[in-house]
């Protein structure tokens, strides 16, 4: 595939694209995704939107402040000046962003892209050793970090990384640096296929995979799923719970609203009950969250607070049909379900309004194609379970990772999900095809948790799988063999849970701990995770199991 001439001086990202023969086939079936050769997605989302709708429109809202489109443009341009003039950032350099959802994080995202840099998005709850890994893979040269989240970054082994914090007070903060900068910046004239974004996902080995997305990809998710399924309006107010480090959140809370001149209410954190209250109070019209939150709001008897929402979107895990029907019966809302992947940036199978069939994920989003493949890589008959395979204007490009060959097969992106397609072309979710634990919309690699838990001095060995949970879909369950002399009691379980919370992102900790005498293994010594998953699903103990506090 012939790439356009790059604007990147630092060619790190382009040099580490997969071999062309391992790329997915890219299809541009709808005219909206046929972009010009030169394209900077930050300019398209911000400057061009201002040209159409004006700078005085509200853009980024929090519970305490409001930024107009003009305010965001000013900050983004000043940040671009800080990066290029103060920090020596060149086109193609990687900029790591770390912090909760707030306007300064969004401004940093736009400023980095306008400077021609590649944004490395990260989840704010990541711990030092996880940031170590991201640094080794993406090699960012600068980090823009919320001042409340610098400790783990400073504790990480990140040689050569310059950290500038925002949100606090002080001479060297990002805001202080911006104050002296021009509010005008000429954005770098990037190619449409220059890398704009590196987003991390987790594989079943626990080693995160870095997915690379072009400037055109960022717009493509807005011009497919958002334009054809969500259909937002300039008067909409978006909000939701997914972090902007998660591409579901980046699309739903930044890219989609700004593409049409709408506004977004950024929440740093909110319980489901708090989310429902703020949705009603602020008159939110488009909501993005996971099935976990929809279930919790339902259970708390607060569904009526969402009656004014025009579009409720659910992704990250399968939406139970009972939850969908409960919302529809209570307030007439038809929740939009969908499946996406970090590798493809956002949602590629979904449906809205009259096209929804409760229980089905939906149809291929216009611009995407989807099939169900059998073990031999050929399409299976309708009604037969198989591997979901997708093509579209976006696709998997891992950064220098041999697992590219596993994800892309004969031009198809193989998502790792088992699906059935019915005779009308609707796709029905069956299960994950690998060892990923999808809990409350978070992807958690069981082997990664095992690696951390196994470093505790009381643990001889362990196996980690997902256990069914009504609220979260799945929860992390650890089967633990203790060293002799360690008591298999609740205090030990709590200690192990706390250890994991302190060592890695807290949402990955095992909510269930079961002590066992031994783990099931194959003749070659390989852990039989399938057996553990079966036991967890049945709720039956492994032979020789002790108490299971959690």
From TrEMBL:
Residues 531-550 are annotated as: Disordered. SUPFAM superfamilies: Acetyl-CoA synthetase-like. GO terms for biological process: secondary metabolite biosynthetic process. Residues 448-526 form the AMP-binding enzyme C-terminal domain. Keywords: Ligase. Residues 538-550 have a biased composition (Low complexity). The keyword S-adenosyl-L-methionine does not apply. InterPro entries: AMP-bd_C (IPR025110), AMP-bd_C_sf (IPR045851), AMP-binding_CS (IPR020845), AMP-dep_synth/lig_dom (IPR000873), ANL_N_sf (IPR042099). The lineage of its organism: Bacteria, Bacillati, Actinomycetota, Actinomycetes, Kitasatosporales. Residues 48-394 form the AMP-dependent synthetase/ligase domain. The gene is acs_3. PANTHER family: ACETYL-COA SYNTHETASE (PTHR43352), ANTHRANILATE--COA LIGASE (PTHR43352:SF1). It comes from Embleya hyalina. One of its GO terms (molecular function) is acid-thiol ligase activity. This is Acetyl-CoA synthetase.
């Amino acid at each position: 595939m012939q790439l356009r001439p790059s604007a990147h001086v630092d060619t790190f990202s382009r040099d580490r694209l997969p071999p062309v023969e391992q790329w997915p086939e890219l299809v541009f079936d709808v005219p909206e995704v046929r972009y010009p050769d030169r394209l900077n997605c930050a300019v398209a989302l911000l400057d061009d939107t201002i040209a159409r709708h004006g700078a005085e429109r509200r853009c980024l809202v929090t519970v305490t402040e409001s930024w107009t489109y003009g305010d965001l443009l000013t900050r983004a341009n000043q940040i671009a000046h800080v990066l290029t003039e103060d920090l020596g950032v060149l086109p193609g350099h990687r900029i790591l962003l770390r912090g909760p959802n707030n306007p300064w994080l969004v401004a940093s995202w736009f400023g980095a892209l306008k400077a021609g840099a590649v944004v490395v998005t990260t989840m704010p709850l990541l711990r030092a050793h996880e940031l170590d890994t991201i640094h080794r893979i993406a090699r960012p040269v600068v980090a823009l970090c919320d001042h409340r989240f610098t400790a783990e970054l400073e504790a990480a082994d990140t040689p050569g990384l310059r950290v500038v914090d925002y949100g606090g007070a002080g001479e060297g903060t990002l805001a202080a640096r911006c104050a002296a900068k021009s509010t005008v910046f000429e954005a770098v004239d990037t190619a449409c296929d220059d890398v704009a974004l590196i987003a991390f996902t987790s594989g079943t080995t626990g080693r995160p995979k870095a997915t690379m997305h072009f400037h055109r990809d960022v717009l493509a998710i807005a011009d497919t799923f958002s334009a054809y399924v969500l259909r937002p309006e300039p008067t909409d107010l978006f909000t939701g719970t997914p972090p902007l480090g998660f591409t579901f959140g980046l699309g739903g809370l930044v890219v989609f609203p700004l593409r049409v001149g709408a506004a977004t209410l950024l929440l740093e954190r909110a319980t489901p009950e708090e989310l429902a209250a703020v949705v009603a109070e602020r008159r939110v019209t488009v909501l993005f969250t996971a099935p976990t939150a929809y279930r919790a709001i339902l259970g708390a008897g607060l569904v009526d607070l969402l009656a004014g929402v025009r579009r409720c979107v659910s992704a990250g895990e399968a939406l139970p049909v009972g939850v969908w029907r409960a919302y529809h019966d209570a307030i007439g809302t038809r929740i939009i379900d969908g499946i996406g992947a970090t590798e493809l940036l956002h949602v590629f199978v979904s449906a809205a309004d009259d096209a929804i069939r409760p229980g089905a994920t939906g149809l291929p989003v216009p611009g995407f194609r989807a099939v169900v493949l059998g073990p031999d890589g050929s399409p299976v008959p309708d009604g037969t379970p198989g591997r979901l395979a997708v093509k579209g204007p976006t696709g998997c490009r891992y950064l220098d990772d041999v697992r590219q060959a596993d994800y892309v097969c004969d031009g198809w992106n193989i998502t790792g999900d088992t699906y059935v397609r019915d005779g009308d072309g609707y796709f029905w979710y069956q299960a994950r095809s690998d060892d990923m634990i999808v809990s409350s919309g978070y992807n958690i690699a069981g082997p990664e948790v095992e690696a951390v838990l196994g470093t505790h001095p009381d643990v001889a060995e362990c196996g980690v799988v997902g256990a069914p949970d009504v609220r979260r879909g799945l929860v992390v369950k650890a089967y633990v063999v203790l060293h002799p002399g360690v008591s298999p009691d609740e205090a030990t379980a709590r200690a192990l849970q706390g250890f994991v919370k302190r060592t890695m992102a807290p949402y990955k900790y095992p909510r269930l701990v079961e002590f066992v005498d031994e783990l099931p293994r194959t003749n070659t010594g390989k852990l039989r995770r399938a057996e553990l998953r079966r036991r967890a699903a049945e709720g039956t103990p492994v032979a020789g199991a002790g108490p299971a506090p959690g």
